[in-house]
Amino acid sequence: MRYLVTGKEAARIDRYTIEEVGVPQSVLMERAALSVAEQAERVIADKKHGWILVIAEGGNNGGDGVAAARILALRGYSVRLWLLNGISKPTSAYQKQVELAEKAGVPFDGYKLPDMHGEEQEPPCVVIDAIFGAGLNRELRGVQLEVVKWINTLRHETGNIVISVDIPTGISAETGEVLGEEAVYADITVTFGFEKIGMLFAKDHCGRVEISEIGFYPFKDAELFEAYEKKDIYRLPVRPWNGNKGTFGNVLVIAGSGEIYGAAYLAAAAAYRTGCGLVRILTHENNRQTLQQQLPEAILMTYGDEITPDKEFKGADAIAHASVIIIGPGLGQNDMAHFLMEYTLRNARCPLVIDADGINILAGHRELLKAGERPVILTPHMLEMARLIEESLRPSKEAVAELKRNRIGIAQNTADKLGAVLVLKDACTFVTEGKGGYFNTSGNSAMAKGGSGDVLTGVIAGLIAQGMNAVSAAKLGVFIHGLAGDAARKRLGDRSVLAGDLLDAIPEVLK
User: Fold this and answer.
1) Handedness of CA 443, 446, 448, 454 (dihedral sign)
2) Which of 156, 271, 313, 389 could form a disulfide with 458 if both were Cys (CB 3.0 to 4.6 A apart)?
3) pLDDT for 31-43, tens place per residue?
4) Which domains does the chain have, with CATH numbers?
5) What angle in degrees, to the nearest 10, is found between the helix axes of 470-492 and 452-465?
């Protein structure tokens, strides 16, 4: 496992390390600069020739860049340093690094935008972007914006390598948004101590991220967000050698409608693939023949279009004895769907995984969650989450935009208010139960197809059936789902992955 922080929390950890622990700022800066210099050395070694341009502004991020220029120059590399001087009050740490660079004989240039295509000089092999770091919270403008545009143009035209210090200039460390017209496109980003959450949502700008441990001391109450690595797959529940299908739990899938059967199949098959012992499907009678053919391992129960009295409801026994229930995928929002949701929430005593139309129904009837005491996992995508926030089937564009800007706070508050584990699906899915949270870093855009979310609900439910608690199953389920997407993409490419291909990839990941 590794940890992520917001830009604000990174600044607090930095201050705590220096002011409370007593690690000199110069020590942290030197370690940061060494890690940047080492990345530049690797690039130069691959290119066999060339020179290095370091562009620095007057903050501590600029100080890291100036120190890296000095280190590289002392190691014999051809280095030039641009000091933009667009900040009225440079930091003392930056000024000290400028003095050291001058004593080391590093060549300085004032701010200018020369034509690097002229005959006087070849363009730099490496550009080190040390303009602004994770502390930037305003739009780029003026000289800094002009230089950022120049860096991107040069990279596009010459193919040089751009290394950003801490985070590409112009990217919000909180949200990943581009702050203004343009942000640096880096090939490599060297960040310090912890990856910043905004970098997860700005992968195109960050390139390959290298996390350098430079000696930070997180304070006791620091808000660190979890992220899994491939070795975390071993969090899977232990599978006893003498287990039977009862040992590994039974999943009830309440999904599909008269027009949709695929959601029920995908969720049920994913639960089986993840390792549960038995799957029951409760779905519309129109789906019987197709589901029996596609997934003969599942036990099938059906209902018609007429709502029956509770005492005659065919799914009552299955709901009463399930280890975990999935409800919502492809369910629709008609009277029968509302009946199924209300009955299940009133009577189920096992964990519930609620997705898709189940969430849309809850948006107008949140009181249904109060109907029983059992763990609930909600798996909304961004639009469904906006419906939950506004309790409306037609959320405003402003609600969706605000959700993207403040996903952590809104998700934590919503999970706490609803008493649920929230799986907020996006390019980097966020899982929280109200405090802290987990950001998922597996998966890719090839998974952006109808049905992928149905597979996710099945994976999470399959893990709960085998004994994992709700929040652990949500985190590991999202991670496994993303790994399956990565495996499918590797086999099929960026465009051709279907939700069914994720089912085929789950065994490959778990094996």
Assistant:
1) negative
2) 271
3) 999 999 999 999 9
4) 2-227 (3.40.50.10260), 248-510 (3.40.1190.20)
5) 130
